[in-house]
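Quick one, tokens below:
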């Protein structure tokens, strides 16, 4: 079967039926001219936006493809679909972003803005494209620059400033904001259509956060109540921001320049203008935040899968030996793992207890997932829809969250200028329009420029202030635990602190019908979640013969709004003035992130998240009994609050010589929930390059950007594991012609740098293409042949459920889909690396408990590798890259390519693969307040 690219919302966009022949003849020009006429919202003005206190000295840059403008009228969508034309500023950051892959080798500081855009405050007079007083207000001005169309929002009152931020957000992302508030509420299909991928999105995120309207409002009330004056200010900011969004909805409706997707999905009529665009309200922002938190900031989960694999190991080897084998694959605290804090600091968290207490491991074969979807009708009852639901369940309940994002930060002690330098940003996938949006916001208590998630841009979430910059990567420490609640009376009652208590049923029914945008046949289903005091039910099982339900409890559950205070502080120039105040600000963010900071003289790091204090003896890796003895310390179920580890216990640092992060392990003894923090991690790609720069000294913005860009093209397997595999293969002469030819190609690729890089800019073909094809085919074959004979098929399968074998660029990436750029986050590279080195007799710290390749015999291992290599070499390009909706079978470059996955009506061109942040800053401040 050919691999299918997920279809989301408007991937299936077709010409509206009322314009069946619009591609033929000049009549489209008349139509478009008429539809475009109301688009002029603001006249260009020769007005300079005066820069705030800006210490960047023209040394701050950023980039966010495809472009700032994420809204398009119906006319613009039709033109894009027919002729590929792009609305202004819809894709003008895509080419510079893409060109870094071929242009970084000769990069200098003077050329950085060939690939990035100036991120200074303000807009020079000759660069002003438009000036707008939204809704006629006199206390706020939105100025957009000619080069990128980014809004620069300047207000004289706090309310006006936030009103302007909301208005600008709606100008740039109204449709996307509407999509994601419906995703967060689990109501995407009725809004945007019943495409299987839409079903999957709403199922995955609603399972994660099945909130009622009362739940959403309670989270706002609690966040405001517990944060005093800052809480009250946050609420006022949200109200003003929403007022701005709704003012734009009114203006675009009356002016008929609202996003054309509303027409194509049946919400508005292009002729009569009948229909409504639903106004935003405060709880919509909480729903939005729950989606972002689930995607990028909720480490943990997977305890049931962990238990299943542990039981499989114990069944295979016995309890004691099986536990050792399991722990060696888990790599909780691997001594060879790359660390963000590399000076030996220890921050114990979620470590293995010496005497585990309260474990509630399921009886073998008794686990069954809790069904989310019921009463399917129509297109919801197809096999494709069922498969989509299964994938959504796996994504929601596993520990392998798509962390993404990277950071490279170097202390001024090692830079040419003596000032700190940072190259960092979030890796949030690629969408059209993009999930993030840029803005500059200047007003009372606000002074920042950078990126925010659409619909949450009352503050800049990742960016720069007057004399400092900050960014984040996903950290993934465990803030989610699984509890086994004992059932009583029936399957919907459980024991809560000794009392038989009914579960709470949360349900909603979604129905859809075909639209111009999505022709999926009519269908419907009911989503149902049973909630307990210990969180939603995810599985059913028996433990020692007792019927139980497994639930997941997340420390940020019912607290999606709490992080607003931290972001408010980051935007406040009177609060953040130093690395210490930066760390204090991000301590108010309850999602699991690694935060990085740079000003002219200092750098800093802090790991955020509400890390619950677990009961003594509780092992966070496995389910525990839902009993008071094993609950979080001082846990209050009505508010889901507990004691959390203090700030001093979170990994943190100021002025380390350099920091790197690519979702790797933070510090010694600090256990992350996801598997794979061993001897080979994509963080090594940054560590090796930055360490080399720092050792040489004289680091510049260009050299640090070059290190990031070089790592972005590296094949982790080829750079760090393939040399060891080739040692085994070459331990005796390779006499088979096919194997010898493959070895030569692979060896030449390693010598050339092991990059997945075009042979020349724009060639759409890789240098070393044959070697890349061979490794892509070989890796899954060699892993299976190396490990399955020793582990047995049951244990091997259980282990692959904990950690996927591979994540090559052409692989799917959960909610972000395929063609998503991010690669090599999860895979068995460390296991292969350690096992092969052991076979070679090399020193291995934290090795696997048993030998696997050839049972430790070099010659037997070599036979396995050569046999699988020959098979891989014989696989055709069409077999390795089977094709999808974007690519023909056998097109290697296209299979890897990055595509802006359509969430609206505008489509963009594919670009060559890069593994780098979606939004990225390059910053160096020469001065400080």
């Amino acid at each position: 079967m050919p691999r299918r690219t997920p279809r989301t919302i408007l991937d299936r966009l077709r010409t509206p039926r009322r314009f069946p022949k619009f591609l033929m003849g000049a009549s489209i020009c008349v139509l478009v001219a008429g539809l475009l006429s109301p688009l002029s919202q603001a006249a260009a003005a020769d007005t300079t936006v005066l820069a705030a206190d800006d210490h960047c000295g023209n040394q701050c840059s950023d980039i966010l493809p495809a472009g700032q403008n994420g809204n398009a009228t119906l006319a613009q969508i039709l033109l894009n679909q027919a002729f590929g034309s792009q609305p202004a500023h819809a894709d003008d950051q895509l080419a510079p972003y893409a060109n870094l892959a071929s242009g970084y080798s000769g990069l200098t500081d003077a050329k950085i803005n060939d690939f990035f855009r100036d991120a200074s405050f303000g807009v020079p007079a000759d660069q002003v494209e438009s000036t707008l007083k939204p809704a006629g207000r006199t206390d706020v001005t939105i100025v957009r620059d000619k080069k990128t169309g980014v809004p620069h929002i300047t207000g004289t009152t706090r309310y006006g400033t936030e009103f302007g931020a909301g208005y600008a957000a709606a100008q740039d992302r109204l449709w996307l904001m509407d999509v994601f508030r419906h995703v967060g509420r689990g109501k995407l299909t009725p809004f945007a259509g019943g495409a299987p991928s839409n079903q999957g999105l709403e199922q995955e995120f609603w399972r994660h956060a099945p909130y009622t309207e009362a739940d959403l409002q309670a989270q706002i009330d609690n966040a405001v109540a517990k944060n005093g004056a800052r809480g009250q200010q946050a609420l006022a900011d949200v109200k003003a921001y929403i007022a701005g969004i709704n003012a734009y909805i009114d203006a675009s409706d009356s002016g008929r320049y609202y996003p054309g997707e509303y027409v194509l999905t049946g919400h508005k009529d292009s002729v009569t203008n009948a229909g409504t665009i639903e106004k935003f309200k405060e709880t919509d922002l909480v729903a939005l935040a729950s989606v972002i938190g689930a995607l990028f900031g909720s480490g943990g989960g997977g305890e049931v899968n962990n238990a299943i694999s542990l039981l499989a190991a114990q069944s295979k080897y016995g309890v004691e030996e099986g536990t050792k084998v399991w722990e060696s694959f888990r790599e909780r605290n691997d001594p060879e793992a790359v660390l963000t804090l590399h000076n030996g600091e220890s921050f114990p968290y979620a470590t293995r207890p010496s005497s585990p207490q309260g474990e509630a491991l399921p009886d073998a074969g008794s686990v069954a997932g809790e069904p989310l979807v019921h009463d399917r009708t129509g297109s919801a009852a197809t096999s494709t829809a069922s498969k989509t639901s299964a994938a959504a369940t796996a994504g929601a309940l596993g520990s392998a969250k798509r962390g993404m994002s990277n950071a490279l930060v170097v202390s001024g002690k090692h830079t040419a200028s003596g000032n700190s330098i940072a190259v960092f940003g979030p890796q949030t996938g690629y969408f059209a329009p993009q999930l993030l949006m840029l803005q500059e916001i200047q007003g009372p208590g606000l002074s920042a420029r950078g990126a925010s998630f659409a619909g949450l841009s009352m503050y800049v979430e990742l960016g720069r202030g007057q004399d400092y910059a900050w960014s984040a990567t996903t950290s993934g420490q465990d803030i989610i635990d699984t509890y086994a609640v004992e059932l009583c009376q029936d399957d919907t009652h459980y024991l809560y602190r000794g009392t038989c208590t009914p579960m709470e049923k949360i349900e909603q029914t979604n129905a859809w019908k075909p639209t111009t945008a999505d022709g999926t046949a009519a269908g419907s289903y009911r989503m149902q979640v049973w909630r307990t005091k210990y969180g939603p039910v995810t599985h059913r099982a028996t433990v020692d013969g007792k019927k139980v339900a497994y639930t997941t409890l997340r420390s940020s559950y019912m607290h999606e709004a709490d992080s607003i205070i931290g972001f408010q502080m980051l935007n406040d120039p009177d609060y953040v003035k130093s690395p210490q105040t930066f760390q204090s600000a991000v301590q108010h963010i309850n999602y699991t992130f690694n935060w990085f900071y740079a000003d002219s003289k200092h750098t800093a790091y802090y790991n955020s998240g509400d890390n619950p204090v677990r009961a003594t003896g509780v092992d966070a890796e496995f389910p525990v009994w839902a009993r008071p003895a094993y609950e979080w310390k001082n846990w209050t179920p009505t508010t889901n609050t507990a004691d959390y580890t203090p700030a001093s216990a979170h990994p943190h640092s100021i002025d380390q010589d350099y920091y790197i992060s690519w979702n790797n392990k933070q510090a010694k003894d600090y256990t992350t929930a996801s598997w794979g923090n061993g001897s080979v991690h994509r963080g090594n790609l940054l560590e090796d390059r930055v360490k080399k720069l720092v050792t040489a000294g004289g680091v510049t913005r260009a050299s640090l950007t070059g290190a990031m860009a070089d790592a972005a093209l590296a094949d982790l397997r080829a750079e760090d594991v393939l040399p060891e595999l080739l040692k085994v293969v070459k331990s005796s002469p390779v006499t088979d012609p096919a194997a010898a030819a493959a070895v030569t190609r692979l060896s030449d690729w390693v010598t050339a740098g092991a990059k997945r890089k075009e042979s020349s800019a724009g060639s759409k073909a890789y240098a070393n293409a044959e070697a890349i094809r061979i490794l892509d085919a070989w890796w899954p074959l060699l892993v299976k042949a190396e490990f399955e004979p020793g582990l047995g098929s049951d244990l091997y399968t259980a282990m692959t459920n904990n950690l996927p074998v591979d994540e090559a660029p052409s692989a799917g990436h959960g909610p972000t889909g395929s063609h998503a750029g991010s690669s090599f986050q999860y895979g068995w590279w460390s296991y292969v690396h350690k096992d092969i080195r052991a076979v070679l007799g090399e020193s291995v710290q934290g090795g696997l408990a048993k030998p696997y390749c050839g049972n430790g015999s070099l010659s037997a291992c070599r036979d396995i590798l050569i046999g699988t290599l020959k098979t891989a070499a014989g696989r055709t390009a069409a077999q390795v890259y089977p094709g999808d909706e974007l690519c023909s079978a056998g097109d290697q470059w296209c299979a890897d390519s990055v595509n802006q996955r359509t969430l609206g009506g505008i489509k963009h061109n594919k670009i060559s693969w890069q593994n780098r942040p979606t939004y990225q800053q390059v910053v160096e401040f020469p001065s400080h307040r």
